[in-house]
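Try this one yourself first.
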């Protein structure tokens, strides 16, 4: 007497083949697609990848901050946005400006920035607010 195949077994076997097909499509897409950007936001990673050197212009209002941002990471960065805060003697924010850094930052290089129109304050803080790291996807 011949045994009948269980319909559930056939369905499960078909499902696992579908999963394998999707997995193959994902692997091919990862290998074939061009390099992509990963969005990053402010935090500890920006301190690890970037250094800032800057000075405040002396003189009357409005103040101006000029300086260099260094890309210490091994790949290019782009869409870099700085946050510049003017602070009073109690360290409260009295003025804030967001400034895009022009162009991209090649790996292990620096780029000049210039932020104008800041109010006179007791101190200033410049931080990297957001950026994108451009990593090329390679072969496994």
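Now uncover the answer:
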């Amino acid at each position: 007497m011949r045994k009948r195949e269980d319909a559930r077994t056939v369905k499960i076997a078909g499902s696992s083949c579908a999963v394998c097909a999707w997995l193959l499509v994902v692997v091919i897409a990862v290998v074939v697609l061009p390099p992509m950007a990963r969005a990053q936001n402010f935090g500890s990673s920006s301190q690890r990848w970037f250094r800032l050197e800057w000075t405040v212009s002396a003189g009357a209002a409005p103040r101006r901050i000029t300086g260099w941002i260094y890309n210490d990471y091994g790949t290019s960065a782009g869409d870099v946005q700085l946050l510049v805060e003017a602070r009073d003697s109690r360290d409260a924010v009295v003025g804030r400006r967001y400034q895009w850094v022009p162009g991209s930052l090649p790996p292990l290089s620096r780029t000049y920035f210039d932020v104008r129109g800041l109010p006179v304050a007791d101190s200033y803080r410049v931080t990297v607010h957001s950026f994108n790291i451009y990593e090329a996807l390679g072969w496994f």
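Discussion: The longest helix spans residues 7-32. Residues 5-14, 22-42 have pLDDT under 50 and may be disordered.
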